[in-house]
């Protein structure tokens, strides 16, 4: 009897896995446009059931072995959100903003703490399998949404519309004339499928069906078809392959240089938006902007790219666009900026944005290298490169699933003992050129890898990554 109870509360428990996937599935169904229009973000609350599941697991198992490592991840993830809150509060106090305005800003960012708690709870219960089970829940909801969309047009019509959408590369006329395509155009989940594809191809070495899951993720990625995500995915794949070509020591250099280049790029990007160069470039190359140029042009009057600019406080841009809705000053019908880099700069100011971006990219990269090892750090930066491109023209920084997955995947990878399979052929004279290069690289890696300051538990042993 005791053995059965013990089995019930392990990370391989079918009951816990099924309940977890069900909670994620239920929350992801909230992205279905019919439900989203009626209920908004309310279905996301279903994912909070994961916290209850984790509490139940703690009470029955008494397992606290991962608390120390998870608490460090929790501090890292939360500190970035707290930084935004702190900068905004300073700005609100200086500008003497009303309590209602401040409350709206705080309520918008507070759900990120629920998001972080769910990530930590999932990793506590399932360790390296947390990302995979989350994928099952989100992908399952995506397939159901596609099925519901196809029910309105028939399977044949749905396939025809999907092929037309892919071959036209998301042409607006195709989207606007297809009920099915509009129904399955679920932005957040589509972006997330690109991240899962990267994870299954590059960062889960022990997963038996990794390439099957990668193929599913790619299918759903194409079904949602976000054009900017294709560029994101291409650059992220190139970055992951580049890192694999170098030794551990050189990987650390590449990671830190990439982080610093991202900081410089973001300020340059904001500058070219403000002076109109970015919009002119896109217009000259006949890239559809869907009203973004009007938003960027309007918001440009509210900020300056110089150290004296102090910012407007979190959610200023959204509140500004909402206040114009239905008036003669309305720029476009949407109330989202569709540019997270610009939005955060306008809201946090020159120095607040600098602190945030240094923490997000430079400090986090160093933290992952020193505490989790080079391979986990490469995983983090690969995802960061992918998401950075989406930040340039979309609102993915605080999308629910995007912000959850970019935290969960490196955390899941941390718990996986990331070890290269040893070469069977140890006689160098019998090796071909590629085998010799790989063998020498592995030997060099062992010597150059830094010892992470945290250990990732796996099975009955603690293995160093």
Keywords:
disordered C terminus; two-stranded antiparallel sheet; mainly alpha
Describe the structure.
The chain is mainly alpha-helical and 465 residues long. 72% of the residues lie in helices and 1% in strands. The chain has helices at residues 2-8, 14-28, 33-39, 49-61, 67-95, 99-126, 130-153, 155-167, 172-176, 179-184, 187-202, 210-224, 227-244, 248-274, 277-284, 292-299, 316-324, 340-372, 374-393, 400-415, 433-448; strands spanning 456-458, 461-463. The protein starts with a helix and ends with a strand. The model is unreliable at 1-9 and 459-465 (pLDDT under 50).
Radius of gyration: 23 Å
Q: Name the average pLDDT.
A: 83
Total beta strand runs: 2
The secondary-structure element order is: HHHHHHHHHHHHHHHHHHHHHEE
**Biggest pleated sheet:** 2 strands, antiparallel
Helicity, as a percent range: over 70%
The low-pLDDT segments are: 1-9, 459-465
Give the helix/strand class. Answer: mainly alpha
Widest sheet, order of strands: 1-2
> What proportion of the residues form beta strands (DSSP E)?
under 5%
Shape category: globular
Q: Termini, distance in Å? A: 36 Å
| Separate helix tally | 21
């Amino acid at each position: 009897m005791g053995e059965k109870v013990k089995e019930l509360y392990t990370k391989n428990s079918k009951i816990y896995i099924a309940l977890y996937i069900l909670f994620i599935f239920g929350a992801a169904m909230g992205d279905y446009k019919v439900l989203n229009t009626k209920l908004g973000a309310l279905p996301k609350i279903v994912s909070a059931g994961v916290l209850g599941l984790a509490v139940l697991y703690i009470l029955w198992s008494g397992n606290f072995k991962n608390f120390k490592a998870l608490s460090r991840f929790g501090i890292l993830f939360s500190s970035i959100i707290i930084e935004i809150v702190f900068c905004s509060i300073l700005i609100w106090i200086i500008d003497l903003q009303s309590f209602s305005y401040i409350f709206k800003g705080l309520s918008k960012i507070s759900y990120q703490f629920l998001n972080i708690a769910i990530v930590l709870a999932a990793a506590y219960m399932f360790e390296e399998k947390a990302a995979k089970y989350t994928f099952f829940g989100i992908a399952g909801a995506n397939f159901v949404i596609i099925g519901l969309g196809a029910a309105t047009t028939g399977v044949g019509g749905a396939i025809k519309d999907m092929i037309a959408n892919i071959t036209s590369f998301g042409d607006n006329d195709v989207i606007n004339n297809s009920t099915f395509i509009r129904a399955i155009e679920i932005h957040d989940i589509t972006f997330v499928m690109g991240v899962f594809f990267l994870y299954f191809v590059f960062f889960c070495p022990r997963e038996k069906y990794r390439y099957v899951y990668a193929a599913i993720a790619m299918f759903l990625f194409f079904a949602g078809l976000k054009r900017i995500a294709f560029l994101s995915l291409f650059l992220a794949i190139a970055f992951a392959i580049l890192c694999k070509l170098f030794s551990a020591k050189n990987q650390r250099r590449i990671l830190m240089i990439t982080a610093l280049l991202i900081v410089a790029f973001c300020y340059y990007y904001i500058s070219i938006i403000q002076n109109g160069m970015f919009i002119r470039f896109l217009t000259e190359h006949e890239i559809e902007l869907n009203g973004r140029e009007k938003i960027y042009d309007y918001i440009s009057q509210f900020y300056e790219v110089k150290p004296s600019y102090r910012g407007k406080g979190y959610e200023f841009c959204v509140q500004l666009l909402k206040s114009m809705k239905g008036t003669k000053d309305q720029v476009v019908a949407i109330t989202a900026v569709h540019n997270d880099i610009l939005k955060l700069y306008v809201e946090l100011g020159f120095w607040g944005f600098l602190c945030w971006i240094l923490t997000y990219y430079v400090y986090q990269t160093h933290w992952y290298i020193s505490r989790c090892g080079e391979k986990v750090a490469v995983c983090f930066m690969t995802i960061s490169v992918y998401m950075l491109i989406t930040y340039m023209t979309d609102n993915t920084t605080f999308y629910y699933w995007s912000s959850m997955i970019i935290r969960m995947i490196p955390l899941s990878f941390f718990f996986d003992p990331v070890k290269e399979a040893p070469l069977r052929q140890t006689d160098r004279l019998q090796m071909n050129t590629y085998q010799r290069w790989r063998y020498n690289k592995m030997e060099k890696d062992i010597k150059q890898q830094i010892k992470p300051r945290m250990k990732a538990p796996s099975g009955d042993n603690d293995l160093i990554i």
